[in-house]
Amino acid sequence: MKAANSKTTALRLACWTVVVCLLPCASWGIAPAFISDGEIAKYPIIVVAKWDKAPFRSNAKYSTNSDLGKVVTAYEAYTELNVLRVIKGTVQPGVTTLKVGYGVGWSTNGDHVTSATSTELPGDVQTVAEPNIWFLRTSRSWDDKDATNYLSLDYYRAIQPLVLEEYFAALATGKPEKEIRALLGSTNATAVHRAISYVCDGHWPWPYDSEFARFIRGSPPPAKKRVEYADSLEILLKRARPKENRALALVVYGDLTGAKGVPFIRGLLKDTDPVVRLLAAGLLARQRDAVSIPEINRAMDGKTNDWVAGKVIDEIAAWGDPRLVPALANYLETAPTGYETYGSNTIAFMSRAALHRITGHWFPYDTQASLRAWKEAEQTSDFESRKKLLARILPNDPEPLRAALIGDGSTNVICKITNKSKQDVTITRFPDWGNQQWPSGLAGVATGGRKPEGKGDFITLRSGESTQFPMKLYGRFLLAEPSQRQLTLHYTDTGRAWGMNGWVGTLLVEFGAGWTGQRKLESVFEKWPNGNLQTKGQTMNGEKYGEWEFFNEAGDRIKSINYSGGSSAEYNPEHPVNKGKGKPSR
Predict the structure, then answer these.
(1) Angle value at C-alpha 558, between 556 and 562, nearest 5 degrees
(2) What pLDDT was estimated at residue 344?
(3) Distance (Å, rounded) from C-alpha 431 to C-alpha 428?
(4) 3-class DSSP state for residue 38?
(5) 29-41: buried (b, 16+ CB within 10 Å) or exposed (e) per residue?
(6) Which of 12, 211, 327, 495 is the most exposed place for a label (fewest CB within 10 A)?
(7) β-sheet bridge partners, residue 81
(8) What is the Cα–Cα distance from 283 to 254, expressed in whole angstroms?
(9) Does pLDDT of 13 surpass 50?
């Protein structure tokens, strides 16, 4: 859970307390149930209003929980809202008290509107200190002594940009087509984005779809697609402005039209926007449009490192047509975007993997050398013959490096990188980052890596040469069973900005010949004064290791904790399996 910003309102802080104590947690964290635009449009009270940075007064209800102690079981906060105009509902303009519940928060300046939960979902307005549309209800306090029916805000998306007033009015009628088409023709980027979102019902198609987005919405894509808006999307894509939404418009158009949209999308391979060109190539690859291959090769010029390039490369690899090798080769020198999670997710790495899938050959991170070799080899149609030819004219070791730890079992170690290939290999002097993983944990590793600033941040290793650097590991990682722990290093920069062809990829680190760490396993038994077991377990190098069992004074098992696997369990001491399990006779 993120720490609170010093400017965060008391409202947001208290909401987090409720989240921690009361709500179930998904794998991504906690988020309020999704409410669609159509549902928001039906709120009973709709006003144009702003928050004049009035103070907040919190009101929390506490209960005592046997496991957690004193916890918040109900929460609300009060501030003042300046109602400028009433669109719907029996509310008078002017300053009025506003009750704010769980699911919405903002900073003391009025910006950073979010769901105020551990999954901090962003709201739809820049600041609540400017006029916006507020969708409200009336509700009473959790305190039965307070009979006031307050104006109430209960959702982070219940504050919407003023430019969308006609859009929400049209949604409320159930017949919004005219307004949606008008928004698609707007020059306001916010209006256009919301209209495109409506067309796909908020379910962004490839390549902007994600499991996280589906988790947040909690609903499946619509069974019936709104294909009636495809013509309006075409008109939008023919315009140069607003350019912010043309990429979204294209992928929604492609999803709505399928094969029927191919002729129009072909024209976008020459678009002035490189991301639009890239997405057009991906959509045509998904349709296996062989006619477009020459233009796809020209459109995919490697000049954009937008993150969607990886998904386009995946589609071309899945298609597997060798005529698209030039398109992939153009991305062999693409610099990382900075958003990669692992080295194997860099665009250069992905393009090389795709080339290997199609040709059977591991190309170097050198676009021009790869294109020259392919120009000679593509005349050979037989896969195996062509593979042998590429190996002869452009030899390249796909795994040229070995990484090994040097240490005595302490957390301060040295990592040695050796060039085990027959060719020179250039890498950054330090990996960009490292990851250590074991059954009960996952953590990063400080490697000394930083964003390269010049050739001095790289090193070239000749065959057999090595370089090394210090690292610090977690103690729990070293205690884990050797077969269940994994340490990886990630290199992501090819150095093309300085004319180099550095190696990028992921290295699995070995506990090599220079590792002298010892593993001393000892059993531990702690007893109650009556002789029954209190605790039973093992230590590794003096630290708790594996599964430990805990018993009450009567010798009944009540709990277990696996310090290696990260799991724990509570037991019923009266169950026959646990009864007397810690008595000496057993």
Answers:
(1) 125
(2) 52
(3) 6
(4) helix
(5) bbbbeebebeebb
(6) 211
(7) 96
(8) 7
(9) no
Beta bridge mates, 415? 405, 469
| Residue (of 514, 517, 510) closest to 404 by Cα position | 510
CA distances from 436 to 4, 341, 490, 579 (A): 28, 14, 12, 40
- Residue 283: strand, helix, or coil: helix
- What is the rounded average pLDDT for all residues in the chain? 88
Residue 68 token pair: 């957690």
Beta bridge partners of 490: 433, 506
Q: How far is CA 583 from the centre of its chain?
A: 50
Q: Burial level of 301, CB count in 10 A (0-12/13-18/19+)?
A: middle
Tokens of 418: 């050796």
Domains of the chain are 10-166 (2.40.50), 180-299 (no CATH), 304-396 (no CATH), 401-510 (2.60.40), 521-570 (no CATH)
Note whether 390 and 361 are within 8 A (CB): yes
Per-residue model confidence as pLDDT tens digits over 238-256: 987 778 899 999 999 999 9
Please write the tens of the pLDDT for every residue from 53-71.
Answer: 999 998 888 777 655 567 7
Query: What is the per-residue pLDDT across 115-163, written as a single tens digit (0 to 9) for each?
Result: 888 778 899 999 999 999 999 999 999 888 999 999 999 999 999 999 9
> Of 142, 148, 31, which is closest to residue 98 (Cα–Cα)?
148
Extended beta strands in 102-161, E state:
132-139, 150-153, 159-160
pLDDT of residue 453: 93
Query: What is the distance between the alpha carbons of residues 233 and 398, in angstroms, rounded to a whole number?
Result: 44
Tell me how far apart the alpha carbons of residues 262 and 223 are, in angstroms, rounded to a whole number: 22
The angle that helices 189-199 and 246-257 make with each other, rounded to 10 degrees, is: 20
Cα torsion angle, 65, 67, 69, 71, sign = negative
Residue with tokens 């918040």: 72
For residues 390 and 360, give the distance between their C-alpha atoms in angstroms, rounded to a whole number.
9
Cβ distance 311 to 282 under 8 Å? yes
As a whole number of angstroms, the distance between CA 147 and CA 145 comes to: 6
Instruction: Write out pLDDT tens, residues 470-488.
Output: 999 998 899 988 999 999 9
Closest alpha carbon to 77 in 40, 49, 105: 105
What pLDDT band is residue 343 in, cutting at 50, 70 and 90? very low
Task: Report in angstroms the alpha-carbon separations of 506 from 16, 51, 256, 345, 435.
Answer: 38, 50, 38, 10, 10
